[in-house]
User: What shape does this take?
Amino acid sequence: MPETLALKINGQLVEVPSGTSVAAALLIASQPFRLSVIGEPRAALCGMGICFECRAVVNGRAHRRTCQLFCEAGMTVETNL
Ligand code: FES
Assistant: This one.
């Protein structure tokens, strides 16, 4: 297993250690999480799949909970839901 892998977050190429969650990758890359319906910034809160505050579009699929996904090489993540 490679020690690091690369994925794209909001169009930016990001390299993270293997085993990193997508939510952690967003933080490592200093990328914002989604905005609420009234435009307030949201971010991972519970880290265990309950609050849904960490949702993003992952590989074209909307509303994925990024705290529940491990990064994969070539993955794309968009946080502007
Ligand atoms: S941080 Fe709560 S569901 Fe992901």
